[in-house]
Every structure is written in structure tokens, then in C-alpha cells.
């Protein structure tokens, strides 16, 4: 609902397909943030430390997502390779830019005062440095694929920590606290005149 209000107030690209894409990207980003925080929560045991770690990861992704610094201006080691390509913000930004600018033209004037038109594709390619080799739907598909990957990663981490906790609690338990069953077998032959005892 807030997305629908702001979309039309801001005067973004009219048409149901453009708004539908906008809503899908917002929903995918919400799911990605939730999935990422689930992974952080499964690794970090402390609630406050989990929030701090999750916010730190989000901050790194936002910084190198291609909005605050254009892709060609991002420092190459670590920031562009691999963080720029790992950050889901890159695909959300570029998908939303393509959704808004492709198929549009804008009036432009050069230094001599001559007016001409500037295409949205030119703005995307030369000003925003958006990768134009694939469509906005591919950006959305990458976001959905990242959601699935994060959820599977969360499941793997949960199952692995479950097994580790079971093993560590078993070994950490003192020997006298472990459950021990003593069974008496009345039908067996007594060895020294008494009943035989089986300890399990």
C-alpha cells in the first residue's frame, strides 16, 4: 500500500506492467532482507549482536550496490569484486532503473542552445552505468534465485547447528547424569547363585 501511494505521487512510469514490476521488486527485496537476517540469526546466538551483524552486512551491500557510487567508480578489490555482484541491491536498483527509463525520451539542450531528445536507454547506459545486456525481468529472476539460495542456506545452517548441539550436549553431560537402564533377566542361569544383571 505505501508503495502504491508513493509510486503514483512520484509520477513514475504509468501502466500496470511497470507498477507490477515495481511491487515485485519491493516484495523480493523484503524477502531477501528477511532471509538474510534469518541466516544471521541462525549463526549469531545473541539477539543484539545479530541485529548489529545484520545491519553491518546490509550497510556493506548498500554501499557497493551501485547507487551511492556508480559501478565504474567502485574500488575494484573486494568492493566491486565480489561485493558489488553479491549485493542484491545492484539487481534491484538496475531493474527499477530499467523499469522507469526504457522506452522514454527526455528533452535536452546542448551548449549552443539547440534542443534535442535524450533516450532513456542513453541515460541508463552512459549516466547510470546500468548493464543493458539483459532485461529487467532477468534482474527480478536473479532476486528470486537469491531468495531461494538464502532460504536453502538457512536450512543447511539450522540442520548443521542442530547436529552439532546434539553432539556437544551429549559429550558435555557428566557421566553420572547420563541415563542408564538396569535390566534384570530372570530367565537366565545365575552365575554365582544370584540373578544376572544387564546394564544398557
TrEMBL record:
It is found in: Membrane. Its main location: membrane. The chain crosses the membrane at residues 19-40, 47-68, 140-158. Residues 4-101 form the ABC-2 type transporter transmembrane domain. One of its GO terms (cellular component) is membrane. It holds the Pfam family ABC2_membrane. PANTHER family: ABC TRANSPORTER G FAMILY MEMBER 11 (PTHR48042), ABC TRANSPORTER G FAMILY MEMBER 11-LIKE (PTHR48042:SF1). This is ABC transporter G family member 11-like. It comes from Prunus avium (Cherry). The lineage of its organism: Eukaryota, Viridiplantae, Streptophyta, Embryophyta, Tracheophyta.
Amino acid at each position: 500500500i505505501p508503495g502504491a501511494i508513493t509510486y503514483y505521487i512520484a509520477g513514475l512510469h504509468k501502466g500496470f506492467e511497470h507498477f507490477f514490476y515495481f511491487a515485485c521488486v519491493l516484495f523480493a527485496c523484503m524477502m531477501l532482507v528477511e532471509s538474510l537476517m534469518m541466516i544471521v540469526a541462525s549463526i549469531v546466538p545473541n539477539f543484539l549482536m545479530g541485529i548489529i551483524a545484520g545491519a553491518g552486512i546490509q550497510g556493506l551491500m548498500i554501499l557497493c550496490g551501485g547507487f551511492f557510487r556508480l559501478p565504474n567508480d567502485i574500488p575494484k578489490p573486494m568492493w566491486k569484486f565480489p561485493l558489488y555482484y553479491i549485493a542484491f541491491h545492484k539487481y534491484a536498483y538496475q531493474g527499477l532503473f530499467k523499469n522507469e527509463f526504457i522506452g522514454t525520451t527526455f528533452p535536452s539542450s546542448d551548449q549552443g542552445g539547440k534542443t534535442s531528445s535524450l533516450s532513456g536507454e542513453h541515460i541508463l547506459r552512459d549516466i547510470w552505468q546500468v548493464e543493458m545486456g539483459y532485461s529487467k525481468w532477468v534482474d527480478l529472476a536473479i532476486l528470486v534465485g537469491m531468495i531461494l539460495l538464502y532460504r536453502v542456506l538457512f536450512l543447511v545452517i539450522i540442520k548443521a547447528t542442530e547436529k552439532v548441539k546434539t553432539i556437544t550436549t551429549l559429550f558435555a553431560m557428566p557421566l553420572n547424569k547420563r541415563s542408564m537402564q538396569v535390566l534384570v533377566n530372570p530367565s537366565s542361569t545365575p552365575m554365582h547363585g544370584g540373578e544376572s544383571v544387564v546394564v544398557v
